[in-house]
From TrEMBL:
Domain called Helix-turn-helix: residue spans: 15-63
Pfam families per record: HTH_17
An example Gene Ontology molecular-function term: DNA binding
Highest classification ranks of the organism: Bacteria, Bacillati, Bacillota, Clostridia, Eubacteriales
NCBIfam families referenced in this protein's UniProt entry, alphabetically: excise
Naturally occurring in which organism (per UniProt): Candidatus Oscillibacter excrementigallinarum
Name of protein: Helix-turn-helix domain-containing protein
Top-level taxon in the UniProt lineage: Bacteria
InterPro entries attached to this UniProt entry: HTH_17, SinI_DNA-bd
Amino acid sequence: MSSDYRSFDDLPLTLRVEDLMPILGIGRNTAYELVRSGKIRSIRIGRQLRIPKDALVAYLSGRNR
């Protein structure tokens, strides 16, 4: 999965936590902390955490929680 997204439409329906890092310009620890704290909603699929695209939009627009 590429992290070279040019627009919102290029984003997949779910993102890995590692995909948040270049999108938000943050480090790995900060990305995981946003998910662990619930500031960005995530779902667990097996052992992986995935962030729905709409959860990222909600976080960026301030509509989370």
